[in-house]
Write the structure tokens for this entry.
Amino acid sequence: MLSLIANNDDPHIFSINSKPYGSSYSDWCIRWIKWLLEQPRESNPAIDTSGENCAQNQHGPVWFLAGTFGGSATRKCNIPLGKAILFPIIEKECSFAEDNDLKIETDLISRTTKFMNSVTHLELSIDGITLQNLNKYRVQTPVFDLMFPRNNVYGVKEGKTRSTCNGFWIFLGPPTVGDHKIYFRGADRDFNTEVTYYLVVSDKKV
């Protein structure tokens, strides 16, 4: 139950060394990035400020929650019973399409690492309980293929590129039926992202 998570040793938060549903944390982070950035701007869940796009392209056992591209948002989402939840408190994704000054894959990793090393604030509360030691949930993905659609959120040329991501990720086990609140914020000196989610977990089909 999300309402019973009192510390980061609770088994309902998966360890970054675990393999939830048979895949590593980094594999799930890649799926999250592809889920977010391979959707066009008009339906992208990170652009949405209300939660109306929350259910876009949600498949499989894990429900993805979006952050923002900077700034705050409050969203309400209905999610099915039995879905685990994955989201980044803050993350940095780089690709050759966005960062055309970078030439080799190790440059992508270096840039994401440098950004995440500058993070000064991590905050997470679940159903009113503030979680600690969030820095232990940092994940660097390997470099992977990313396909930007037409009218993508970054305004870059559509098509395939190479990407990587570094961030602080939270992977929750399935919450119980009912209402839940998740709040998270991540920031450095020049960037802030902050989201409040009001989740309604139902055994009815979304």
